[in-house]
Amino acid sequence: MSGLTAMARVLAAETGTRQAICTLRHLHVAARPIVLVPITLAGETNAPLAVLVGDDRDRPQLIVTNRPRVREERLRFAERLGAELLLPIANLARRTEVVPTTRRTTTVRRRAVEAPQIWVPNPAGVEFLRLLGRMTRFRSTVGQWAVAPSVPTLGIWATWFAEQSEFADSSVLVATTQALTAMWATGQSDLEDGNLAALMAWIDPPPGTSAADAAARAEDTIAFPPAGPATDPQFDAVVLEPALRDLDAAPDDQVRERVLARLASGLRDQMQPTWDRVWRAIDLLDAVPAAPHVAVRWERDRERFYAFADYLNTIGLPQARQDGAVRGARRLTDLEVRKSTFDAQRAYDDALVMAEYRLSGEAFRGIVVDADADRVVRPSSRRVRRPLITVTTRDPARLAPGDRELRDPQRPTQEAAVIDVESDGAQTRIRLELSGGLGSGTTGPAPSGSVPAVGDVVTYTRLKAGGYTHRGTFPNREDTPWTHGGPPAEYYVPTSHDAAEDWS
Amino acid sequence: MTSPAADAEAAFQRIIATFTSSAQPGVVVDSPPGAGKSTLVVRSSTQLAADGEPVMVVAQTNSQVDDLVARIARRAPTLRIGRLSRADYVPSPDVQRPNVQVSSDIRKLADCAIIVGTASKWVWVTEGRWPWAIIDEAYQMRSDLLLRIAARFDRILFVGDPGQLDPFSTVETNRWAGVPWDPMQSAVAALLRNNPDTPQERLPVSWRLPPSAAPIVQRAFYPSTTFTAGTVPEERSVHLPVAGVGAAAVDEVINLASETGWGFYELPARNTIRTDAEAVAATAAIAARLLQRGTETVCEESPGGRRLTADRIAIGAAHRDQVAAIARALRAIGGAASQCRVDTANRLQGAEFDMTIVLHPLSGRRDATAFHLESGRLCVLTSRHRHACIVVGRAGIPELLDAHPSVEPVHLKSLLKFPDGWEANQAMLGHLGQHTVPAL
C-alpha cells in the first residue's frame, strides 16, 4: 500500500466517509455491460450451482444446474450459459470498423465497434470463469462424450476473458470489488473490502446510516448473502442441502419440478442482492468522469476482441493448457510493458496518481525560474535545438546529473535530461536540457508553447505513457532453444482423453 | 591438507575441462560470495580466446560489463576485446584502452577475440552463431532473457551465485508456476529443469568473506554445499586507533565487530514506518563513526594495514526509500561519510567492501512478507564484507519470525528453494544474537 492510499484510509476511518484515491476513473465502463454473478457448490472445484447473468438489470437470467452433483449436468449448465453469453459476443464481433492508420502502423487492421464487458462481483468470480473455461474448452462435439458446440466455444471465450483480465490495462472483464477499491479508499481492512456487501456499504451507505454502521450490518450473512462464488454455510445447511436431498428422492417429475422451483427461488434470493450491488457499483463508477487515456485503452480492447473473434472463426482451436516457452516469454513481456504503460497513463491523466510518484521521488513538480528557449548546440555535424530550463521544486526528487528521458505530461513528445541538481535541504534547483517536440529548423525562436516559460508549473517524470516500446526479438516457436526444452507443438489439439476428462 | 589456493586452481582446471569436453552444451558453475566468479570469467574467456575461437561474454548490467571489459583487457593486452553497447553509450575511462573496441553493431566487432555485452543488448542480435559463451551472474538473469539469446551460442558456461536474489518481475502471476520454462525463474533454473543432466561445478573458496563470516554464511544460506574462507584469522584484522567514548553503544558495536567480524546494534522493540528515523540515524552514525575513528584494516592485500575509506564502506537496506533516507542522514552528517555507498540489496549484488552496515529488512516491521523473508536479500546484505558486518535492527525480530512462518503456496512441480527465507533468517539472527549491543 502506498503512502497516499494509507493516508486516504486513515482519513476515511477518521471521517467515516469514502476517500477518492484518484480524481478520475481509469476504467472503461461500457454502455451495455454484462453482469455475471456465479455461485458454486461447496466441496468440489468450481462445480457450478447457478448464475445470474444478463445486460438488463431488471431482467436477470437465472441459470441453475439441475442436479449440481451430476457432472453431465454441469456441461448442460455450460451450454445454457453459452446460449446467454455467446449471442451478444457474436453480435458485437460482427460490427467492425477500420482502425485509422498512423505513420507507424500502415497495415490496415479492423476492430470491433464495441467490445463486450463482463462484470463479476470479485476476483473469485474471475477465477470461476477461468476454471469454467478450463473445464469446457477441450470438450469434443462428436463421439461418445459429445457436447453441444456452444460448450467448448463458451470455454474458449471464458478463458479469453479471464486471460485478458491479467493485463492491467484491459477492461473486458472487471472484478467489481477491485474496480471500486481502485477508485475509493474505505476505513476498513483489505479483507473487509473484499466483501462486496461491506465495501458497498462503506462507499455508498443507505441514507441516514453511517458508513461504519452500514458495513457492520453487512457482515450479517443472512441479510447480506456473500457475493460468491462460495455460498454461505448457513444457506447450505438450511436451504441447499434439504433441496438437493429432496431432488434426489423425488418420486416423479412433478415433484422434481416443484423442488427445483423452490431451489431456484432460494438461489435467486442469495444472488439478487449481489446483482443489485454490482449494478449500483457500475452506476457509481460511471458517474465519475473518465480519464483521457481510458478511451485509448478501450480501443485496444476492441481491437484485441475483434482479433480473437477472427482467430476463433479461422483457426478456432482452444488455448493450450500451458504456454510454450516462447509464448510465455512474450506474454510476460506484454504483461510488463502494458502494466508500465498503464501506470504511466494513469499518472499523466491524474494529479493524485502523479502525487504518489512525486512522494517517492520518481517525479517532481516545480516552477520554471529560468528558461533559454532558443539555445542551439552542435554536438556533431548538425545544429540542433536544445533549450535549457531551470526548475525549483520542494518535492523529494531522486535525480542525478545524467538522468535522461524525463517527460512532462503536458508535452509528452519532449524529453528532458538532467544537467545538474542543487539542493539546499528545503528546495531543489534542477537544470534540464530539452529535446524533441520543438518543431523543425534551428533558426528563429522555438514554436510558441513548445518550451515551458518562466513561471510555468511543470511536472517531470521518467514514466512513459505511450508511443512505441522496443521489445527486441523473440525466437520463433520452432526455434525454441535447447535451454528451454526445444520446440513445442504449434497448437494444442484436444484429444479424446480431454473430452472424457472429469470435471474437477 | 591442500591449501585454499590449490583447491581453487584445481576447481578452475576442472571447470575448463568440463566446459570444453562435456557432451552437454551447458555447464553451470555455482559460486559462493566472493569466490572469484569474475576471475573465473576473465580467465576462462581469455584462455579459450587464446586458442583462436571467439568468446562471447554476457553480463547483466552495464557496470558489470564495463568491469569485465577492463579486467579482460588488462589480463590479455594482445587480444582484441569488443564492448557491445547501446548506441549512445559513453565508455568509462577504464574501458578506453587500445585493445578495446566499442560498437552497438555486432558486425563491426567481427575481428574481436572476446565480445562483452549485456544480455538485454544481446536480445537485439538477430543473426549469427558463436562457438563459446560465458554468462556471468546467471542466477540474476531471467529465463525469458536466456530464451531469447541462447540460440546464438553453441556452448554456454553459466556462472553465478545461487544464494543471491532471484530475478523479479513488475507483474504477479501464477500462470507459469511449475512449468519447466517459467519465464519468471532464473536462467539457471530453466536450464536445469529442461536439461537435468547439465554438469554442475562449484568454486570451493571464498576469498572475500573473512574466516569469521564464511562458515556463518555457508550454514545460513548454502546448507547443501561447502566452501571455506581463503584466509586464516591472522591475515584479517581491524584496528581502531581512536578509542571509543565511554560506553556509547555505537562505539561499542564497532569495537565488537572489529574483534569478531559481526555486530548487531539493537534498538528497543517498536513497530515503525519503513524509514524508521532512529534506525536510519543509527546506521548513518555507525558509518560516520567508523571513519572518525581512523579505522585500519589489515589483510593479505595490505599486510601493513590501510586506512578504511568511505568507498570501502557499504550501507545496505531493503527498500529504496530507506536508502534515500540513509543517504540524506549521511549528507547531514557531512564529511567523508556522505561518500559511502548506500544501496538496496538488489544493487549491491556482486559488489565487495571492507565493512558493511545493514539495516535489517525486518527491523520494526509488523509482519514478515515473502519480500522481506527472501533468503537472497539477507544473503546479499550479509556477505559483501571482507572484514566486518554490522547489522542495525529493532529488538523482537525473532518473535516476528515466529509469528510469521512462510505461508507461500507450494505449486506442483515447481522447484523448492533451500534454505527458505524463514530458516535462513533464523540462522542469521541466532548468530547475531551472540553479538548484540543494545542501544543506550
Automatic annotation (TrEMBL), chain A:
- Superkingdom of source: Bacteria
Start and end residues of each stretch annotated as Disordered: 469-504
This protein is called what? Uncharacterized protein
TrEMBL record, chain B:
Q: Which residues form a coiled coil?
A: none
The UniProt entry, under Pfam families, shows:
AAA_12 (PF13087), AAA_30 (PF13604)
Ranges of residues in domain DNA2/NAM7 helicase-like C-terminal: 281-394
Keywords, A to Z, come to: ATP-binding, Helicase, Hydrolase, Nucleotide-binding
Q: Does the keyword Nucleotide-binding apply?
A: yes
Highest taxon of the source? Bacteria
Matching InterPro entries: Coronavir_polyprotein_1ab (IPR050534), DNA2/NAM7-like_C (IPR041679), P-loop_NTPase (IPR027417)
Name of the protein in question = AAA domain-containing protein
Organism for this UniProt entry = Micromonospora tulbaghiae
